[in-house]
Design a protein that fits this description.
Blueprint (H helix, E strand, L loop, with lengths): L14 H16 L8 E7 L8 E4 L2 E7 L5 E7 L2 E2 L8 E3 L4 E6 L3 E7 L6 E6 L1
Parallel strand pairs: 1-3, 2-9
Antiparallel strand pairs: 3-7, 4-5, 4-6, 4-8, 8-9
């Protein structure tokens, strides 16, 4: 027996590849995949206006990114007036901040800013 010589033990051919494929499959099975019906969108608020007049989404979240130096109060309604029975809670979006509103039910949502009544848009949820 020689001292100072290490003998290498090798796995049989293909065993390393099989082990790697097994690990990849296990990782893929463990990571959650997003629901096919959920969707996220972003609407910019800039120059006291919504960045788009309307968007169409699947049920899910819409991020309202306020790029103005003033706050906005987003609500369901038109021309600065909230509807009598809103489907979501009015949401304050501070200057240079983002707020997320969830649109869970299908339908058309008229969106307005309660502070700036000229800010109006529509979210179509299909």
């Amino acid at each position: 027996m020689r001292s100072g010589v290490l003998r290498k033990r090798w796995l049989p051919r293909g065993a390393t590849l099989t082990a790697m494929l097994f690990l990849l499959a296990a990782c893929a099975a463990a990571s959650p995949s997003p629901s096919p019906s959920a969707q996220s969108s972003t609407v910019d608020l800039h120059g006291l206006a919504f960045g788009v007049a309307e968007i169409t989404i699947s049920p899910g979240d819409v991020s309202f990114a306020n790029q103005d130096a003033v706050p906005h109060l987003i609500a369901e309604g038109q021309n600065g007036t909230q509807v009598a029975s809103p489907r979501f809670t009015k949401t304050n979006v501070a200057a240079n901040q983002t707020a997320i509103i969830t649109f869970g039910a299908a339908g058309d949502y008229q969106i307005t800013c309660l502070i700036h009544p000229t800010m109006n848009m529509v979210v179509h949820v299909q």
